[in-house]
Amino acid sequence: MSEYEKYRPYWPETVIFWGAGTTEPLKMRLTNELGQTFQILAEAQSSVNEEPGVSSLDRAIQKAVPKASRQVQKELKVFLQLVDSDDKDGESDAERTLRISEKRAEHLRRLYDWRAVRKVIERCPRNHDRNFSLKDLYNLLDMHIRSRNGIEVEQQFITLDRLIAARRTVDMLTQLFHVIGFRELIKNELSVRVYEQYYGFARVLARLMLEEGADRAAEQGHGYDDRRFYLFSYAVISMNWDPLLLWLIFNAQKELNDTAEDQEKAGDQSRPIHLFTDLAHFMAIRQVDGRTPAAWFPMNETAVRQLNDPGNRAGRRVRIGKFYFPHGCHGFRECPKCGKLTFSLGDKWDIYSESLFPPQILPSLSPRKPRSFEEKKAIDEGIYDAVQCTHCGTITEAHHTPISMQTQFKDEQPSFIKEIQSDMKVAIEKARHIIFAGYSLPEDDFIYRSLLAARRKMDGDKVKCSVIGFDRQAEEGWMYGTELRDYCKMHSQSSLAGTCSRVADLFGEENVRGYGAGFPNVFLENGKADKEKVKEMLKVW
């Protein structure tokens, strides 16, 4: 060893790719289900076979969102009709049902274009079941928007500005369908039981990180302002747009922090350990229990190092875990004026909070609880999706939510998304264990395949991978080596086998294990989240 110390900054040992398959048991719509929802609605309005008193759109909405309230269904119908036609008669229905002014109705017609969405869907390729892919819809829109050209469908030309409005419509409706799904979840007794199991998982994670902090505090050789103490040993990369896992983790950490005096202590002065989440960008989160749009900021490394500094007399020691939204989140609002990010997570600390998702365009999906004069004024004008920017005070709307689909054509990302993605890439490069939880690493997901392939080349066979999926033919428990190889040969058509094979192509068969009982079974014992099973899932095996 030379006179210079070799510097190896600590990063989480385990990185969890949290995919759509993890929330499928909660009945949150997967990408293909979202595509089917769009197709049902789009093709219904193309139908000419109407029954007296019941339109094809009525039937389609009942099929697309069957558990939504009748009022939500009615509002959705009127909204789609408003942004589907040049007929001004639609504005009167909107004024009555959506309770908006003619001026607001005209503004919505400029922002959104459902007719253009329906036309582009007609151009999308179909599979053997005559279904189209939501990714193909995004690809077609992004390709033509990026080329600055319009598109012709059945001798009708759709201009660039209409394509931009169409993409805005797809983003907004995707968020709206997930909000409807969450409302269904928290009102369904069976789904609530599963949701509570996920909360149990978040609580076990928090407890493990508390114990891990106490263990590391007892170790010699580094201080509390060292990453090896204050960084969790795991990080989450959410491939989903919903904030469900983050919200459960926030609540679990708050629960422990509120009782910190009875928890594990950190070394020298028996100071309690508090747990927080680092979102890889110093974003403003609207105070959950606040009365104004003012924000609290998630803990980051600057604050942690100051609080944990030996000379600081703070009454606690702090640990943080990294959580990434590389594709954006439904809770994000990008200010159109200052460009800064505000994150909305509702109005109360409650895992069943109906206001978890930001307010939506439909009145019935907006809590209509303004926190300022500006928000009240906006809501009174029919802007039910109004959220005031914490930084400059500008009103943001649902179409200011930055989310991106994994398509072949990438738009320029906001600076905060780039910052999140940059930090995430380093976390992947430094991980010793990568968990593919409900994420299948599809062949066309070339960006993440490239990232992971680069990770393999950097560190040879030192990276272990765990694949968690669901297959009725798979037994409960982890499969390794020969057992996993035999399973993949016998069930080569299963999604789990396909994912294991793709991961093995990158990291080698000997470095892959698989679990086929899916979520939430991977962390359950006798119906409850189990500490030992969570530890088994996270460990660098």
Give short descriptive properties of this protein.
541 residues, alpha/beta, nine-stranded mixed beta sheet, four-stranded mixed beta sheet, 19 helices, 19 strands, 44% helix, 13% strand, globular
Structure notes:
By secondary structure, this protein is of the alpha/beta class. It folds into three domains: 28-187, no CATH class; 189-400, no CATH class; 431-538, no CATH class. It has 19 helices and 19 strands. It has helices spanning 20-23, 31-44, 56-64, 70-82, 89-97, 102-111, 114-123, 134-146, 160-187, 189-218, 227-230, 244-258, 301-308, 373-380, 415-430, 446-459, 481-490, 495-507, 531-538, and strands spanning 14-18, 151-153, 156-158, 231-238, 265-266, 271-278, 284-286, 295-296, 317-324, 332-334, 341-343, 387-388, 395-396, 433-437, 464-468, 478-479, 512-515, 524-525, 528-529. The strands form five sheets. It has a nine-stranded mixed sheet. The chain has a four-stranded mixed sheet with strand order 8-7-11-10, with no helix packed on it. A hairpin with a 4-residue loop joins strand 5 and strand 6 (271-278). Helix 2 runs antiparallel to helix 3 (56-64) and helix 3 (56-64) packs across helix 4. The protein is globular, with a radius of gyration of 24 Å. The two termini are 30 Å apart.
